[in-house]
Amino acid sequence: KGKGYKIICKVDPKTEGSYKATIKLSESLQKKLDVLLELLKLTKEQGAILKEKEPDMDRFDEIIQEKAKLLDNMETLDRGFDALFAKAGDTLKNNKYEYQTQITEMQNLIRSITDTGVQIEGQEHRNKTAFQQYLTGARHEIKEFTVNNHVANSYYHNMANQHQSWQSYFL
């Protein structure tokens, strides 16, 4: 049977903290990307709801609440990333070649984060337009209902005032 071998990786104690920081920075960026992808999914769901003939506004409101929680989570991730980068940023800048792989990975994550943010922004703009159309339609229906209700009330009021107790309804 084969012998098990251990691979020993020696990390310079001076840069060990910075290496761990690059891993944590990458993990933080990945978590942010995951949150943004979930936001994009929810934003697209809102768009689909607004396209329906009878939009489910309860679900629409639930999505707003879910998105608020995700945005709070993203804000926490951003603060953590900023704090960590403040500690390790100079080391990364001064040792670009030593951390090239990690820096490239982080740059790719940042590009993905930016692209996803742009997609969310575009979908939010489309949703805003669709929501305004929905509100315009709802206002029109309310106005139409109010006018019809007023006409019906006037008709019934006039009919009630024209009938005398001694008159037959059938004549």
What topology does this entry show?
Blueprint: H1 13-51, H2 57-94, H3 100-162
Helix pairs in contact: 1-2, 1-3
Kindly describe this structure:
This protein has 171 residues and is mainly α. Helices cover 82% and strands 0% of the residues. The chain has three helices and no strands. The protein has helices at 13-51, 57-94, 100-162. Helix 1 (13-51) packs antiparallel against helix 2. The relative contact order is 0.11.
Summarize the structure.
This protein is an all-alpha fold. The chain contains three helices and no strands.
Mean model confidence by pLDDT: 81
Share of helix, binned: over 70%
**Tally of DSSP β-strands:** 0
The share of residues in extended strands comes to under 5%
Name the poorly predicted regions. Answer: 5-13
The separation of the N and C termini measures 111 Å
Coarse shape: rod-shaped
- Structural class by helix and strand composition: mainly alpha
Q: What is the count of helical runs? A: 3
What's the quaternary structure here? single chain
What's the Cα radius of gyration?
A: 31 Å
Report the biggest beta sheet as strand number plus sense, adding barrel if it closes. none
Order of helices and strands: HHH
